[in-house]
Amino acid sequence: MSGEQIPYDEVDKNVRLLVVVLNRFPGLHTIGSCGGHSNPAPYQEPEGQWYVSLQVDHNEEGWRSLEFLAWAVGDFKRAGRLLSLEVSSPPPYMNTPGQCLSFVLRGKDFTPDDLAAPLDEWREEDYVAVEDDEAFKAYTSGSEADEE
């Protein structure tokens, strides 16, 4: 599902910005979310916890975006935030093998906006898109030459 097809008004308000930011990454597509609820149903997160589920395109863009997200999650964890990036899959033999893998970003005791803002900033400043790969290689090669 592309970002244009997501009914953002139906996404829990406190997780909406994070859903928007994640969908800006090439090859990442959010497929579910919960912002936490004071009286959660069995399929909802309790207040103070949240999650966003996503699928990743099976291409270079998808893997680069997932790699970047994994780095960002690790950075937040090192800063003491309760954040995880989990892998999930229903039984492939009962679904569509090769199409059921998804990832779940889970947070606790901090707001999704606290992740969304820096993640979007880092995406703008530090994410290396596939189409920028040659420029990145040239830049890093030049930097190494300057150090010698």
Overall description:
There is one protein chain. The protein has 148 residues and is α+β, with helices and mostly antiparallel strands. It has one domain (3-147). The chain has four helices and four strands; from the N terminus they run αββαββαα. The chain has a four-stranded antiparallel beta sheet, covered by helices on one side. Helix 1 packs parallel to helix 3 (112-126). The longest helix has 19 residues, at 60-78. It is globular.
Count of DSSP strands: 4
Please count the helical segments. 4
Question: Residue-averaged pLDDT, rounded?
Answer: 88
Quote the distance from N terminus to C terminus.
47 Å
Large-scale geometry: globular
Largest sheet: 4 strands, antiparallel
Percent strand: 15-25%
Strand order of the largest sheet: 1-2-4-3
Please compute the radius of gyration using only Cα atoms.
17 Å
Structural domains: how many: 1
Low-confidence stretches: 144-148
Structural class: alpha+beta
Order of helices and strands: HEEHEEHH
Helix content: 40-55%
Characteristics:
148 residues, alpha+beta, four-stranded antiparallel sheet, disordered C terminus
Write the layout of secondary structure elements.
Layout: H1 13-24, E1 28-34, E2 49-56, H2 60-78, E3 82-88, E4 102-108, H3 112-126, H4 133-147
Antiparallel strand pairs: 1-2, 2-4, 3-4
Structure summary:
Helices cover 41% and strands 20% of the residues. The chain has helices at 13-24, 60-78, 112-126, 133-147, and strands at residues 28-34, 49-56, 82-88, 102-108.
